[in-house]
Amino acid sequence: MINVGVVGATGYTGVELLRILVLHPEVSIQMVTSRSEEGVAVSSIFPNLREHLQLYFCAPDPDLLAECDLVFFATPHGTAMALVPELLAKGVKVIDLSADFRIKDAKLWSHWYGMEHTCPELLQEAVYGLPEVNRELIRKASLVANPGCYPTAVQLGFIPLLKNNLVDPGSLIADVKSGVSGAGRKASTGTLLCEASENFKAYGINGHRHQPEIVQGLNEQSKDLVNLTFMPHLVPMIRGIQASLYASLLKDTVDLQSLYEDFYSDEKFVDVLEAGLSPETRTVRGSNMCRLAVTQPEGSDKVVVLVAEDNLVKGAAGQAVQNMNIMYDLDESLGLNLVSVLP
Amino acid sequence: MINVGVVGATGYTGVELLRILVLHPEVSIQMVTSRSEEGVAVSSIFPNLREHLQLYFCAPDPDLLAECDLVFFATPHGTAMALVPELLAKGVKVIDLSADFRIKDAKLWSHWYGMEHTCPELLQEAVYGLPEVNRELIRKASLVANPGCYPTAVQLGFIPLLKNNLVDPGSLIADVKSGVSGAGRKASTGTLLCEASENFKAYGINGHRHQPEIVQGLNEQSKDLVNLTFMPHLVPMIRGIQASLYASLLKDTVDLQSLYEDFYSDEKFVDVLEAGLSPETRTVRGSNMCRLAVTQPEGSDKVVVLVAEDNLVKGAAGQAVQNMNIMYDLDESLGLNLVSVLP
Amino acid sequence: MINVGVVGATGYTGVELLRILVLHPEVSIQMVTSRSEEGVAVSSIFPNLREHLQLYFCAPDPDLLAECDLVFFATPHGTAMALVPELLAKGVKVIDLSADFRIKDAKLWSHWYGMEHTCPELLQEAVYGLPEVNRELIRKASLVANPGCYPTAVQLGFIPLLKNNLVDPGSLIADVKSGVSGAGRKASTGTLLCEASENFKAYGINGHRHQPEIVQGLNEQSKDLVNLTFMPHLVPMIRGIQASLYASLLKDTVDLQSLYEDFYSDEKFVDVLEAGLSPETRTVRGSNMCRLAVTQPEGSDKVVVLVAEDNLVKGAAGQAVQNMNIMYDLDESLGLNLVSVLP
Amino acid sequence: MINVGVVGATGYTGVELLRILVLHPEVSIQMVTSRSEEGVAVSSIFPNLREHLQLYFCAPDPDLLAECDLVFFATPHGTAMALVPELLAKGVKVIDLSADFRIKDAKLWSHWYGMEHTCPELLQEAVYGLPEVNRELIRKASLVANPGCYPTAVQLGFIPLLKNNLVDPGSLIADVKSGVSGAGRKASTGTLLCEASENFKAYGINGHRHQPEIVQGLNEQSKDLVNLTFMPHLVPMIRGIQASLYASLLKDTVDLQSLYEDFYSDEKFVDVLEAGLSPETRTVRGSNMCRLAVTQPEGSDKVVVLVAEDNLVKGAAGQAVQNMNIMYDLDESLGLNLVSVLP
């Protein structure tokens, strides 16, 4: 049994993590922290957990957290970096679902997140938790930086092309769409049902924090530096990310379908669809699967990769549990055998 | 291992049944039938099952079905009654999720369902599969008539009052609301997204088939015959039933809260909320739980019972699996430890 | 031309009022006030008005407002009563869309709205702006208290029965359902898309502020005091109210259909549907129409009235403009010839 | 007064056309045809028109239609071309909202629409009804081919760039998203609320009929032939199209913002947003406006144009009325002064 703590579980990645962990056969949830909800039953905030979790939120006390084997951070950025050094020093493993340890360059991080990084020395030690890329590093890691939701989808989509030098790395376009849960559970006018339903729009057109994270990850897989045009959109639904990725092909004679099928043949959580199909977000809602399709429009030199994932699962909490399973040498899919509820 | 077959699994109760059964530790799905989709991979119709079920739809051949221990019918009404007698004769157990065996009076059934009943002799033998009422009969049954979605919610809400003679049985009003999945997966203009979303209406105002089923069930629990005003409404969402039930109290001095908590204290799938709370459909989405609250408005002689369930789970497929567990002396919640995905 | 001002137009009733007023041929919008958005272009908050309104929000200065012929208040409760006495004294007419002047009994008002009423002397002078009841009083009024959204629907539904002594006034039940815009534009967790979509629930089960307003209105039309059980629900859609009203019939031989058709035959904004039809909220979305149907379930002594309206139009801004038209002896439907956008 | 007939008004473009025409001051609707609904009141299918249109559907009799000044076709493809030659011969003007006369090359049309064209001789005579491009031709036209919904958005977005030779015409990508009403009112499983809500996907990945129409239109504005990668997506909402358009800039020193503002400065139904804003579909819902924004991501050689329109208005019925206004020398915005209902 792994004794885990969850810091900051009043948001959507937090409750999603709890939903998965309460049924995980090798996990015992020791504590769930929240400053604002201290003393409140977790299930009174998240009634889907009424029969499954009897804990109360407690304050995030480092000494108490140090009694855990593993601590998940499901906090806004800036919180994890304040607690992680002490926990690591006490031998606790950490999986951070926030952005604090995703970007290796502290200055770049500060530019996008608007604050100083308080433990830049940990940035190199932190392992970027994309199992399909870094599985062996994750296995030995003490600190895993769990990827962002968009970065997971976009990297899994582009990497087979870049790794095989099939596309011009300067030609990348990612037109990405997310359900509203990506904006979190904080009260705000823009994500009210009355503002966000029956509406569709691009947002973040002056720059989005996930762009440098994606570029960092793609550059590691590409011979030449990538140039990425990244355009996020808000979809009037709760969950799901769909990405339509475009790139200019360098070679014309590649069997892209076989390439993708082979590339991901050993991956349990990447599903390459048969030619002609298009991944739908609802088929991965609540599951840890990332579905992909690849296609080349007739008469065009462009390749199009279509990707669907649940932003809160493969894009957050599910991938965090996948990383935990790897860190503890468990079956990578333990506790993640989740079937989407359809319809 | 119970070898099961599912007849007519191209609808929403069918896919929901499969979602639950693929993870049930004591079930092996032997065959899934559909005349219209014969030869088609089940997962090509329901891509949420891609990693979980590798079967193809086959035709509903009684001889093949007879190799199963148990057959579920997730068919439109009129189909099960054509196959069930032969299956029972061959020693196969049957759980019918359609309406064919729910009403004991064949004439009444014919009136509401517009066809002759072809095996009225089985109507008395069939056990109405509401575990909270008929658990011991279900345990010994060969043929279980799985309750309708509205009838499950309305009966679980009214029964504690009627059984304790606390309300005037002539005063019952059930204002019930259902998500659109209650109308099934058949193509129809009325349930298109463009017609059913951003809209709310009452429907079936000239009579609804679930009314006689509910009245039959309530009469069994009531000293005097009930009179029920039943008004269904369509909610612009996929899943969920909410029922607001009204009745005139005969006694004024009852602690309704304790009464309900005691009445359902041993039931795993009925959850009585603390006073002042209201059950939300999303907290039971995808789970087999039925949540209830009871309240008496200030200055009124009325009691109000609020009920929420997932129409496709406790109102259909989940309750069917609960019944199967009872029939096979398994833990009643085996395979039903489902946590709602929230948000 | 009527020179109007709108106080507090950053909410949903405010923008709805502006949507109607910008096309009203006899209205000139002079000023739109908001403390929080002073200096901001109205159309930058509400881009649907970009081509239609070139004003900027200004602070609510009574001297400036006094230059208007008519001031609408689309403010939270407690705001209008602070400004109205001064405006009335200066000869300005007022239509208050908030609750400040709806309830005649100042103590009752204070009980439900949690503050002292600062000008109780105006409560008797204020005319309750339900044109179908108070048209002649509205014509001469200086201060109109525009009805709440639920009260409009419930009163229009019950009044024909009560006025004709057809039902037991002690038996009234109103099961009402509202789209989320009824909760306003203020940021709050409970009305986020991720919390309120794909969900249905009753709310306000411990009492709702619209109940005393409805009871006051119904008592004026009833021989005996009414007893009303009032249960509001939240529908996962933006706009629309549907009410299902129940009462015990005293006489059995009434032609309810003709009664309702006759009762509302001269009303332009009440539409009685043919027998067997059910009013849908989408058919009145954006329009000032209130649609009704009346039915008596077979074998029951209950009458059921079904009502649909747009909570922001007939339930707020549209009715306010209807009242303005009456006050200024204009055609009552001027500027209100609005066709619902369907689908 | 223009006497108009509407052929095939049981679909969404049909009812939208009627919604606009019933309030148009210079139009008298003479007949509304439907084979399947002959004899049925139009308002019984579309209850939003109850107070506004008292016609019954009649059969599409060419002799009767010939009594109209102008006939709109809101039919599936293949219907208009069977009736139009006769109507034109009798001096009736025609605006065809279907695809029958949009593509100049009859063979190309047949390839995409799967049938022979029965009056290819009219293809050259037909004027493509995009007023921003063809206003003068429309003014003199007898037969207007009203553009498709996607083609309107994509052409209005790309044309300023192509006409000014600012981008590589071989580099065009249109990532377009449509609400479900684009799929029409026909019963189909894929557009049921339960299938299409809470879901997002690309579709038509093997080719979409709007692509050749767009390419034809763009080629007319471009020095060199364009190569367009066109990827449509389905958005879980009723109305609205958003297009994110990408192209490689040839020059780096252009003020794109001014270019777009100048290009459309005289257009009443194209609104160029201030720099940094993103057009939202809800702000044009029910209105004839097309909103645009143009931006160049930092460090990229790509220009991104964001476009929003209502697929049923500027993308269909509204543009048809705009064309009618032009053909009859009316104010181009007569009857089109529509304010979006927000929220």
Summarize the structure.
Chain A has two domains: 2-125, 3-Layer(aba) Sandwich (Rossmann fold), CATH 3.40.50.720; 150-310, Dihydrodipicolinate Reductase, domain 2 (2-Layer Sandwich), CATH 3.30.360.10.
Question: What is the fold's blueprint, element by element?
Answer:
Four copies of one chain form a homotetramer.
Chain A: E1 2-7, H1 12-21, E2 27-33, H2 42-45, E3 57-58, H3 62-65, E4 70-73, H4 80-89, E5 93-96, H5 106-113, E6 127-128, H6 131-139, E7 143-145, H7 149-163, E8 172-178, H8 193-196, E9 201-202, H9 210-221, E10 228-234, E11 241-248, H10 256-263, E12 270-272, E13 290-295, E14 302-309, H11 313-327
Helix pairs in contact in A: 1-11, 6-11, 7-9
Which oligomerization state do the chains in this entry correspond to?
Answer: homotetramer
Can you tell me the residue ranges of chain A where pLDDT is under 50 for at least 5 consecutive residues? Answer: none
- Termini gap of chain A: 35 Å
What Rg of chain A is obtained from the alpha carbons, in whole angstroms? 20 Å
Order of helices and strands of chain A: EHEHEHEHEHEHEHEHEHEEHEEEH
CATH class of the largest domain in chain A: Alpha Beta
Please, how many domains of chain A? 2
Beta-strand content of chain A:
15-25%
Give the overall pLDDT of chain A as a whole number: 97
